[in-house]
Amino acid sequence: MSDVLIIRPGDGADYDEVIPQLDAWWGGRSMGTILPRLFFTHFPPWTYVAGRDGQVIGFLSGFRSQSDPSVVYCHFIGIAPEARGQGVGERLYERLSADAIAAGCSEVHAVTSPQNRGSIAFHTRLGFVPVPGSWHPDYHGPGEARVRFKGTLQNRTV
Question: What's the CA gap between 14 and 19, in Å, rounded?
Answer without folding.
Answer: 9
